[in-house]
Every structure is written in C-alpha cells, then in structure tokens.
Amino acid sequence: SGRWATAMAIIKEFEEKCATPIGKLKQVADAMTVEMHAGLASEGGSKLKMLISYVDNLPTGNEKGLYYALDLGGTNFRVLRVQLGGKDGGIINQEFAELSIPSDLMIGTSEALFDYIAAELAKFVAQEGQDFQLPPGRQRELGFTFSFPVMQSSIDSGTLIRWTKGFSIDDAVGQDVVAELTRAVEKQGLDMRVSALVNDTVGTLAGGRYTNKDVVAAVILGTGTNAAYVERAHAIPKWHGLLPKSGEMVINMEWGNFRSSHIPLTEYDHSLDTESLNPGEQIFEKIISGMYLGEIVRRVLCRIAEEAFLFGDTVPPKLKVPFILRTPHMSAMHHDTSSDLKVVGSILKDILEISNTSLKARKVVVQLCNIVSTRGARLSAAGIFGLIKKLGRDTLKDGEKQRTVVALDGGLYEHYLEYSKCMENTLKELLGQEVSESVIIEHSNDGSGIGAALLAASHSQYL
Ligand code: ADP
Ligand code: MG
Known about the structure:
The chain is an alpha/beta fold. A hairpin with a 2-residue loop joins strand 6 (150-154) and strand 7 (157-160). 42% of the residues lie in helices and 18% in strands. Its main location: mitochondrion.
C-alpha cells in the first residue's frame, strides 16, 4: 500500500545519506590527520584540541604499592583500589565499586557533584581490608580519571574546558577539577592526595601499556568517544615546555569534537544536534557513540510513524520522548535472531508502549538499527585509521616487524557486537590485508581505572 511505499522511501533516502563507501572513509581519515597536525601546531588551531596530558612516561611494570582510582566519565562512576607488586609482581589485588550518577547531579552544581563522589569514595576507602597495605605514615594517593575535556597545567591539575555527554554544570567550567575534588575529599575528612588527573583515554593507554608493550594508542567507544596516543614531543609545535627525557608525550585528542564535510550527516543528526545540550559541538561523537545511536534510530522511526503510519494512525506518544530508546535497546533489537523478531517486539512494547507490531514493522526497526550502527562503526574505523596514519604505521617499513596495538574500551565496543565487528572489519579494509596483520585491536577491560592508579603510582609524592 501507499504507507509502505512511503516508509520504504524514507528508509531508502536515509540509507543513501548515511552511506560510507571506502573512498569517503579515507577522506575522513585524511581530514582527521590534517586536524591532528593543526591541533598540535597551535592552541585553538583545530576542532581537535589535541590536549597535552603531562604523561611523558607510560607504566613500566615497576609500580609498587597501594593506589586508588576514581573514574568519572558518563553514566557511571567507579572507585577502585589496587595493590601493585613492583617489578614482575603485577597486580596483587584489586577491588572496585561502581555507582550510577543520579541524573539531577549531572545538571546541578559542581559542589553537589563532587560532594557526592567524595562521599562514595570515603565509604569505599573505609572498607579497605587486610589485603591492601599502606606503609605507615603515608597518605593514600589517587588517580582521577575524568573523561571530559580538560586543559591541564600539570599532571595533577587542570581546568574543565566544557562538559559533554549530557553533563551541564555551569559553575564547574573553568575550574580546576582536582581542586574541586580535593576540597570535597577534605570535607569528608578523608586524607587522600590526587596525584594524577587523567582522561579515560590516557588511563586506558596506560593500563594497556602495562600489560602489552606494543600499545601506542587508546580509543573509547562508550557513552561518548575519544582517543589518545603517544606522540613524539618534538612533533608538538605548541608545546613550549622542556622536552621530556623520554622524548614522548601522550596526547588526548578529544576526537569527539571532530567534524569534516566528508562525514555523512542527515536531517536527523542536525535536529539531534540543535536540540542537544551542546549544539554545534561533538559532532563525531553524536554520530558514532553510545549516547546517541539509539536516539538517532528513534528520530527516524518517529518520522516514519508520522508520515507512513508505521505503528497505526497515530504516533505512539512514547516514541516522541527524546532519548527514551537507548543504545542497549537498539543493540538488543539488532542482535535479535528469532524468526518472529521477538526481542524487537518486546522492546517496542516495553519501552515505547507499542504493542502488536507486525513482523514487517519489526524488520524496519532492525534495518534502521543496522543503518545507524554501520555508519557509526565505519566512521569510528576511519578515525582509528587516521590515527594510525598519523603514527606512520599504515605502511610496512622494510624488514621491520613492528606491531601496532590499539587498546579499545567502552560499553558500546564491549556489548554492541554488530558494531564492533563492523568497526574491526572496516579497519582491515582500510589498512589492507598485509598491514592489518600488524595492527591489533585489544579490548582493555576497564584499563582506564587501573591506568589511572598506575599513573598515580608513577607520580607519587614518595618517589
Ligand atoms: P562511560 O562511557 O559512561 O564511561 P561505558 O564505557 O561503560 O561508560 O559505556 C557505557 C555506554 O555503553 C552506555 O552509555 C551505552 O551507550 C553503551 N552500552 C552499554 N551497554 C550496551 C549494550 N548492551 N549495547 C550497546 N551499547 C551499550
Ligand atoms: Mg568510561
């Protein structure tokens, strides 16, 4: 009937607009390397901030003692303690706790957010058992993983540039986040020093390097997306400090804010962006990361419901609620292998309150999930390819058997298998058969927490 023809036409147009042929991905990757150079050349020289992390040495394996980490990044925050064994000792013991951040705190005041975090940290420290040993007279030390753009002035200080991922706490912008945390920690009567402030990508890179010497970059695909890598210090023109002894500096790219005319954007992406908390910002993030994929699907579905009456004569009211369809719902539907698409049916019923959906309508939903996740996954592969190009590891050097390992973490990568499979296949396609054999994507399960603790250890006041 006419309804179906309209529905198919909307989907077809959307699919065409989302297309990411390999040539386009190569243009995106090249634009990424161009922007990397520009961001390294001067402050404000690019959409890519290419932030200096003040991490000029990655973990060696000699780190020793009890260290804490606190990871504030998106939907959840984690606290962790780890007993490091020193040379060849590895990780002797570790414990963590994970809590969700009450949504009112994400848009409240800086004081309220940090008070809450410090209170949970204090509770966790109070549960420290005999398996963890702090030498007498020593202060506990913490690595603070903070996954928002921060302009650092040292390894243990830095001011918040802006919020992303649904956070919006105006009075925290421009403040030193370590000072904020320290004040809240003192208010709890907790004797603890923040020794390292690290982005989650930098933490993941550090954690990855601890277990694998060939790790040179880290990428997060979670609520948001970002990447960090090891740069040669003399290739950072905007760095006017002393050249580090190692000759290296870890750069936090803040690639979520990347944008390029080669990135395929649709009307749905434009309206999502306009109505977001940070319009015009984080465009790459808004089409590839977990916070937004489900929302894009919802927007297209809504249009099909309005114009092609996909779910009957009226638009189901829940379908109009922004962010009601989360990416985990989307991936559950996308992964539905039952012949009658049972999972799709029950998510449509439970989340969107649309009952008795036809198999045909369910297939439309799966098709949309596939279009949106494929575009995101292929563009994330293009980003990684651009990064590998910047490292000069997209070609094989004569007689060299160098391995390039990229540590990957984040709930999207970990749980959305259609997405991660597509990302990895696309990266292979971009690298070519031969080079792709030397490039390894390694899942770093919560490497960022361990990484922050390791960096707290290597920047301890007792060294
Ligand atoms: P964060 O990025 O908030 O630090 P995570 O790395 O744990 O935290 O990623 C959480 C994000 O991962 C969620 O916001 C969601 O978008 C995505 N995610 C979690 N579970 C799934 C899933 N089953 N399928 C798809 N995406 C998921
Ligand atoms: Mg995280």
